[in-house]
Design goal:
- It contains 4 helices and 6 strands.
- The protein is of the alpha+beta class.
- Among the domains are: 74-121; 123-180, Nucleotide Exchange Factor Grpe, Chain A, domain 2 (Roll).
- Strands 1-4-5 form a 3-stranded antiparallel sheet.
- The radius of gyration is 43 Å and the shape is elongated.
């Protein structure tokens, strides 16, 4: 009985081995086939790399062109708003016999046009009031004078300053009070 059981146990094993031996084993690719597959993969990757590199170069070139156009036409809006100011000044010069009143009125209107152009293009003036604390980020002290106010405060504005879009274009020139 034991022999029969051993035989029964061995038979299925032998059958399985026979089935395995009878079936064709999965063919492993040869070294030549692996090399060809790798070369195809390399060619695909090289093509993809070259396309990506060309696309990056095109994007860089377009960005440079856009920057160039932006620099070239950046002041276009400001220039347009100044045209009305220039036209007003030219018309004032064409008047044969201007009166003082008409000149004053024309200059006032032209100044309003210019102020409007500045405001529209975020060019804002810095004009500190007397007694205001000196701000070195907006003001440039030209001199210190004796005054009846706190030291390092604005006494007088000699020339207005300007900012453009929150960036200092020109500081206001001021005199400040000396320390007592």
């Amino acid at each position: 009985m034991q022999d029969t059981e051993k035989q029964a146990e061995n038979e299925p094993v032998q059958d399985t081995q026979a089935q395995t031996q009878g079936a064709e084993p999965a063919a492993e690719p040869t070294a030549a086939e692996q090399l060809i597959a790798a070369e195809v993969k390399i060619a695909e990757m090289q093509d993809a790399f070259l396309r990506a590199k060309a696309e990056a170069e095109n994007i860089r070139r377009r960005a440079q062109d856009d920057i160039g156009r932006a620099h070239k036409f950046a002041i276009e809006g400001f220039a347009e708003s100044l045209l009305a100011v220039k036209d007003s000044l030219e018309m004032a010069l064409k008047i044969e016999t201007p009166s003082v009143e008409s000149l004053k009125e024309g200059v006032d209107m032209t100044l309003k046009q210019l102020s409007s152009a500045f405001e529209k293009n975020k060019l804002l003036e810095i004009s500190p009031q007397a007694g205001e604390k000196l701000d070195p980020m907006k003001h440039q002290a030209i001199s210190a004078v004796p005054a009846e106010q706190e030291a390092n405060t604005v006494v007088a504005v000699l020339q207005k300053g300007y900012t453009i879009s929150d960036r200092l274009l020109r500081p206001a020139l001021v005199t400040v009070a000396q320390g007592k």
